[in-house]
From TrEMBL, chain A:
PROSITE patterns (UniProt xref): ABC_TM1
A GO CC annotation given for this chain: ATP-binding cassette (ABC) transporter complex
UniProt source species: Pseudooceanicola algae
Family: Belongs to the binding-protein-dependent transport system permease family. HisMQ subfamily.
This protein's name: L-cystine transport system permease protein YecS
From TrEMBL, chain B:
Keywords: Plasmid, Signal
Presence of the UniProt keyword Signal in the record: yes
Source organism of the structure: Pseudooceanicola algae
Protein name: ABC transporter arginine-binding protein 2
SMART domains referenced in this protein's UniProt entry, alphabetically: PBPb (SM00062)
Length: 221, 268
């Protein structure tokens, strides 16, 4: 049934525009990871703080982030909060949505990593005269990040793929947004989306491979 | 086993020969069903009524086309970006989807002669004080990604050199953003603008004028190489006008003066 004449030349002429879009996609993904990791560390600390209200904030965040669609989170960051008069640009809305999702998943990763570190590590630090904070910072945190490094790579890949949901909030500069716009303009859907898929694949592959190299260097005994 | 292979080969060969002879027009008549891609997020051209049934100008137009062909109509809801995948994957036979007949798109699909023409209207959020097309300069404006008006509006924002443009995925999102104040104004087809303002669902917004863009002619579309079908579509559009059915449908869904579907000084 599928008969379609592929016009690669016509679609490839748009490659520069799509690569510009890929740069924006990377920007959003990297920013959302950096912010997401920072927030996940805070959320993990809140959970460990022993204070019930603080732990509840962290739990609620994780529950919503992990149990609702990423599309919903991004949509709410744009249209949801706007009904309270708070307006974010498409770029910022997308960034907030993905960061929210990243922070939620990473908090769970960190929690899993913490569970893998014996309690005695922190106690050993305390018995050497370190404060609780320094024990966390110098003994627990490095081990935690190490254990959760590869899951973090996974999250980074997911963040890149999530940028494609930005079209729902009017984002047009990222790879998927650019592809959609070109599709509407030229109707060469299948070529354009095939090119976009290859670009997405190459980006995520590059990230997984470089993460593996970094891990091999960083985590040598 | 050998016998089975031979039988399979014969069946396959006759099957292929069968499809090679009949064209799409024959296939539609033979199948007894005409499947139309219709956008149901584009009132009053396509939308859903209280019973969630598809209604609108495009829906009626598809029904008329099916009646002319002597087959049943099947309305396949298709968002704007999915019109091409729907056609190319064989999910629909023809697009009755308010599709602007741009030359760029005509490289991929075949268009009929125009069956409808849109004028563009400016709708603004009342709090902005925008009262004309020029008044949008410097504001945040938006439209449905990839539509005729979105492409023209984005170019205009670039030309003004101030303000910004945002494409949303659906007409509903554009009007939601407009009512929330995320967008200060939008350019849409005047029919959509009137229909959305009239619903009252979008708060303090008003149609404040027209946009000086060229008239947006829209055509029916089918596969580029289906000459038989495309020829039929052309004649069908022409017949709808001669018989007065176009005027009747226009009065039913839009009202007011009929737009002219012909371009003075040109053949098609």
């Amino acid at each position: 049934m599928f008969d379609y004449t592929f016009q690669w030349k016509q679609a490839m002429a748009r490659l520069p525009q799509m690569l510009d879009g890929a740069v924006v996609t990377m920007e959003v993904a990297v920013l959302s990871m950096v912010l997401g990791i920072a927030m996940a560390v805070v959320l993990t600390l809140l959970r460990l703080s022993g204070s019930r209200p603080l732990a509840a904030i962290s739990t609620t965040w994780v529950e919503i982030a992990r149990n609702t669609p990423a599309l919903f989170q991004i949509y709410m960051a744009h249209f949801g909060v706007a009904s309270f008069g708070i307006h974010f640009s498409p770029f910022v809305s997308l960034l907030i949505g993905i960061t929210f999702n990243n922070a939620g998943y990473l908090t769970e990763n960190f929690r899993g990593a913490l569970k893998a570190i014996p309690d005695t590590q922190a106690r050993a630090g305390r018995s050497l005269g370190m404060s609780q904070i320094s024990a966390f910072r110098y003994i627990i945190l490095p081990q935690m990040l190490r254990i959760s490094f590869l899951p973090m790579t996974n999250q980074m890949v997911w963040a890149i793929l999530m940028t494609s949901l930005g079209v729902t909030v009017g984002m047009s500069m990222d790879l998927y947004g650019v592809t959609q716009a070109l599709n509407a303009l030229t109707f060469r859907t299948f070529e354009l989306f095939a090119i976009a898929a290859v670009i997405f694949y190459l980006i995520t592959k590059a990230i997984t491979l470089s993460a593996r190299l970094i891990a091999a260097r960083l985590f040598r005994y | 086993m050998k016998k089975f292979t031979a039988t399979a080969a014969i069946l396959l060969a006759t099957g292929l020969a069968g499809t090679a002879q009949a064209d799409k027009l024959d296939d539609i008549i033979g199948s007894g069903t005409l499947r139309c891609a219709v956008v149901l997020d584009f009132p009053p051209m396509g939308m859903r009524d209280e019973n969630n049934e598809p209604v609108g100008f495009d829906v009626d137009y598809c029904n008329d086309l099916a009646a002319a062909l002597g087959v049943d109509a099947e309305i396949v809801e298709t968002p704007f970006p999915e019109r091409i995948p729907a056609l190319m994957s064989g999910r629909v036979d023809v697009g009755v989807a308010s599709t602007s007949d741009t030359l760029e798109r005509a490289k991929t699909v075949g268009f009929s002669i125009p069956y409808f023409a849109f004028e563009m209207a400016v709708t603004a959020n009342d709090s902005t004080g925008i009262s004309s097309f020029e008044g949008m300069k410097g504001f945040t404006v938006g439209a449905v990604a990839g539509t005729y008006e979105a492409i023209a509006l984005e170019a205009q924002v670039d030309a003004w050199g101030e303000g910004s443009f945002r494409p949303y995925q659906t007409q509903a999102d554009v009007f939601l953003a407009l009512s929330q104040g995320q967008l200060d104004a939008t350019v849409s087809t005047s029919t959509v603008a009137q229909a959305n303002v009239k619903t009252g669902n979008f708060g303090e917004i008003s149609v404040v004028g027209t946009a000086p863009f060229d008239i947006d002619y829209v055509g029916l579309f089918a596969k580029r190489d289906e000459y038989g079908l495309l020829n039929y579509l052309d004649l069908f559009v022409n017949q709808q006008n001669r018989t007065g059915r176009y005027a009747e449908l226009y009065e039913k869904w839009i009202g007011g003066d009929l737009p002219d579907l012909t371009v003075s000084g040109s053949y098609r």
